[in-house]
Amino acid sequence: MDEPDIEALERATLAAVPPTELVALDGWLVALDAGTVGRAHSAVPTRHVGVRHDLLPGIEAAYGARRLRPSFRVPRVPGSGPLQHALRDAGYTPRQPTLTLVGSVDAFAPPDPGHGVETAARPGTGWADVFLGSGFDPVDGASRVAILQRGRDTVFASVQWQGRIGAVGTACFSHGWCGVHGMRTAPDARGHGLASAILATFGAMARQRGLARVFLQVEEANATARSLYERAGLRTAWCSDYWRRG
């Protein structure tokens, strides 16, 4: 992707998980938030070449002024080499490798009416319960639900399973992208195609809005989720690391 595409994708990401404050610098989006969603409290470059690492002290100061821990979400691409060296020299180390997957919404299967995916502009109690239920960190879940609810141009989807909501997800239609976020399936509802049904619904909604491209982020270690998204036609555009101290 070229620089305008990369910047549009990163802005679409932060439209879906909006930080409490966003500062734009030359080639940087600095997300300032106290929640647990890494994308909402890290600084990310909006281009992959010529990134200004001389701005690092100013970015650190922005976090420090708000009593937040600095964090940088940096893609592993050749153009980021000087930035990575500067971060290492400043005492940062990379962790939590996360893939950005992209693809065409046309690769998503048509929605299966048998699964009965429901969509809404706001999440209901049952939607949030999936994030707070057994098998998930309730503190992290509550933070993620709160941040996703701040999203702009966002749709919340859910699928019933055995009398309750078994899987959820959100799609944010922004900056020319369909961004998929907040995908969760209850442990006992996995393996029944619920997440695939949600993706198919998001694909149909994106096409209705005239959007052709979709993206999402998933931790590199999450093999199960990666397999699902790859079957849906998404492919890795790049891998990013979160650079933090300590």
Describe this structure in words.
The chain has 246 residues and is an alpha+beta fold. It has an eight-stranded mixed sheet, sandwiched between helices. It has helices at 3-16, 56-65, 81-89, 125-132, 138-149, 194-208, 223-231, and strands at residues 21-25, 28-32, 43-45, 72-75, 93-104, 118-120, 154-161, 164-174, 177-185, 213-219, 235-244. Helix 6 (194-208) links the parallel strand 9 (177-185) and strand 10 (213-219).
Radius of gyration: 18 Å
Structural class: alpha+beta
What order do the strands of the largest sheet run in, or round the barrel if closed? 4-11-5-10-9-8-7-6
User: What is the CATH C level class of the largest domain, in words?
Assistant: Alpha Beta
Q: How many helices in DSSP terms?
A: 7
Poorly predicted runs are none
Helix content, binned percent: 25-40%
Mean pLDDT figure: 94
- Overall form: globular
Determine the strand fraction and express it as a percent band. 25-35%
- In total, the number of strands is 11
CATH fold description of the largest domain: Aminopeptidase
Largest sheet: 8 strands, mixed
The CATH superfamily title of the largest domain? Gcn5-related N-acetyltransferase (GNAT)
The figure for the number of domains is 2
Distance between the termini: 33 Å
H/E series: HEEEHEHEEHHEEEHEHE
Identify the CATH architecture of the largest domain. Answer: 3-Layer(aba) Sandwich
